[in-house]
Amino acid sequence: MRTIILCLLSYVALLSHAHAILTIEIIGGTEEGGQPIAIVPFGLQTTMSAPSQDIAQIVSDDLHRSGRFAIMPVHSLPEQPSDTNQINSSLWQAVGMPHLVIGRIASQVKNSYTIEFELFDVVKGEAMLGFRYTANKQTLREAAHQISDEIYQALTGERGVFSTRIVYVTLQRKGKKKQYHLYVADADGANPRLMLKTGEPIFSPSWSPDGRRIAYVTYDTKKRTKQMAVYIQEISTGKRTRISSKRGLNTAPAWAPDGKRLALTLSKDGNSEIYIKNLQTGDLTRLTRNPAIDTEPEWSPDGKSLVFTSDRGGQPQIYRISVNGGKAQRITFQGRYNARPRFSPDGRQLALLHNGGNGYQIAVLNLENKQLTKLTQTRLDESPSFAPNGSMILYTSGPSLSAVSIDGRVRQRLAEDVGGEVREPAWSPYFNK
């Protein structure tokens, strides 16, 4: 059994816990066809105080939200073993359960816990995998998400995303006053941390490839007149650096896969164009030259090209251009509006905002066969962002966050517990590639 030690990330006061907690609701899709699995409540040593987080419940919630599993209700469990030698396989075979997860909180030393679990194959009568985690009170939830990731990968062959994070913006209105907040939270909406609070709009947050920094746009109020500016902020320290605040537009930052360059939209010369900024040297390279509006750049995963939105054909459509420049090629032709392109992690698909005459909806474009598939049916969707395994797309629908599976079967709504709008989401990369 492998041992994994979880270290609590250090956050400065700026990143303190806030009340903008997102609660995920399954609003579409069913568990029909999902893999049956039982998550048995974890055993606890009698001399220990119960931890503040229910590990088994978090794992159950994670797997349920993925839409890939049919979770057996706790009240239907034929037994509740906490160790493999306590499992009566015949009981589980009788109820048609092929897999179960068992675990225990094994020890508590100086406010830390040792958590052990096994994924048990009922048919073979043996554990498929087992891990031991050491976690403190602050990292119990992280340990649960890592358990979920291990189970998900073992049973689907795909890497899980339960240990990743999301960034999003909230807008609260009090009379004529507006307050904007930039939050980073776990992928399930828990543990929100405030990154920025301002009376100025915040938009276009973008994760660095290593997940340690976020680029975003807001306004520089220190100048005589407010100026739009691009900033990069470190997650762990809260330190932020202004990257661009030139005259006119400074917007839509997008990280290169190497983390050393940033594509962005500037209008310093009078027209909205795509530029690439070298973050090490400060050099700025203009990529597009067209009298139309060019904006919303997005790097391909191989770093060789970018896609962007342009109205050079009369209406907003998506184009592709080499990172070395040259002629841009139009790649969307269905519908009167296609914008906000986002590459899937494997580079084979684009998530985008599509309007074919029935409102703004999230769609996916297959870059090999050019097939466009609409994933949502609502009319005011925005800001698609792929999960790092490509299985889900996070987006906004009206004033709230939602997510949809890449096949459209599973739909989720992330409801916030404070009044206001939630917007501009972005799903983090994996933190340990």
Automatic annotation (TrEMBL):
Keywords: Cell cycle, Cell division, Periplasm, Signal. InterPro entries: 6-blade_b-propeller_TolB-like (IPR011042), Tol-Pal_TolB (IPR014167), TolB_N (IPR007195), WD40 (IPR011659). Its main location: periplasm. GO terms for cellular component: periplasmic space. It is found in: Periplasm. Residues 22-127 form the TolB N-terminal domain. It comes from the Bacteria. Residues 1-20 form the signal peptide. GO terms for biological process: cell division; protein import. Part of the Tol-Pal system, which plays a role in outer membrane invagination during cell division and is important for maintaining outer membrane integrity. The Tol-Pal system is composed of five core proteins: the inner membrane proteins TolA, TolQ and TolR, the periplasmic protein TolB and the outer membrane protein Pal. They form a network linking the inner and outer membranes and the peptidoglycan layer. Belongs to the TolB family. This is Tol-Pal system protein TolB. It comes from Candidatus Thiomargarita nelsonii. The lineage of its organism: Bacteria, Pseudomonadati, Pseudomonadota, Gammaproteobacteria, Thiotrichales. The gene is tolB.
